[in-house]
Every structure is written in structure tokens, then in C-alpha cells.
Task: structure prediction
Amino acid sequence: MTAPSLSIGRRFSGVTRLRLQLVFAKAVEALAETYQQQAAEFVRRLKSKLTVEEALERYFREVSVPAAIEETVRSRALISLAGMIENASNYGTRAAGWTLRPDQLLTALRRRVQYVEETNLDCRLAASMADEAVAATHVRMALETAEALSAEMPPDEAIMMYVRAFNLPSIDAQLVFRTAMSQWAELHPLPGEIEAFTRAPAPAGGKQRLALASRPEFGLRVLV
Result:
């Protein structure tokens, strides 16, 4: 993701262009806040395995934070983790001069490999949660963009404009676009859908009839 470009909004009127600039500015601020919150949560989740500095470095490797706001995210995350940093215990240094037997060395290596694998898995899980939160922020701001441009263009074009303005990767772009369109449809139902929701309920009691078409029956077959 890069900083949004407003060159695509020059075909709008001055008022609409300012409204679009305001929405994009709010989106950048909301994304910076989301990245900061997720960075702090990433560090807290991995506090038993990584130091604060190591966890932050790992966060920026696992999560694609835009370069334009990376330092802002790092500074805000450190401020929010101030209490944890002050109370952090020093990691004990390994005593020098120990001699391990071959079997002990092999056991230590196996434990180290298992520890690294578990840490990598925890990092990937925490990064997935961060990516999900960022995608939710993109969806929210894409819907706000569609609302701001509702008098100028259809919602799908407005949402796509947001996606292109922030230069989202293809997979993220598809996810944000589809989710935003789905939520827009829920927020703005078609007239026929409104009538279906407001239709009177079926009569209660024993006189109620269910006209069900014949359907194939499904069962479970146990193979011995």
C-alpha cells in the first residue's frame, strides 16, 4: 500500500474533490492507528518468546506496513508499550564454559528447532490477525468513500477508486472490494428485499402449511 493519489479525483467538482481528500486523509489516519494497535498486540502476544525490539522487527517483516507511515507506527507502538518496556525483565545470558555431552547437545538442538518452529507459527498467526484488522479498516474507509461519492458514481466504481488510490495488492484488493460490496448491499437493500423483510409473517397455529418441493434425501453411509 502506498499513499493515496488524488489525481483520479480531478474530474470532480471542487467540493467533491475536497470531500474525497478528507475521506482519504481519514483513511490514512485510521490505517496508521490500526497498524499501531496491531503492532502493540503483536508484541504482547509474543512477549514470552521475543523481546520488544525483536517482536517489533518481526512485525514489520511479517506485516506489510507502508513505508510512508512505518516510523509513525513504530513510534506510536513504542509509546503504547511504555509500561511493558519499563517492566521488562532482562533476558538472562547463557553461562560460558559449559561442556555438553553429544547426547545433551543433540537434545538441545532439537529443543531449539522446536522453539524456532513454534515461534514462527505464533508470528504467522499474530500477523494474520493484524492483516485481518487492516483489511477491515480498508473496507470501512472504502464504504465511506462510496458514501461520499454516492451522487457522482455507482458504489462499485467508488470502491474500486479507493482500492486503486491506495494501490492495494491484488489479493488484498479483491478481498476489500468483495467485502465492501457485500456490506454495501446489506446497508442498501433493493426494494424487493425490503418488501420481503416487511412482509407479514405466516399464520400461526395448526393451519400453517409448508409447501415443500420434493428433495432428495441424504444420509450417512458407514463403510466397514
In short: The CA atoms of residues 133 and 192 lie 33 Å apart. The mean pLDDT is 81. Helices lie at 14-45, 52-62, 70-80, 82-86, 102-148, 155-165, 170-187, 191-198. The radius of gyration is 26 Å.
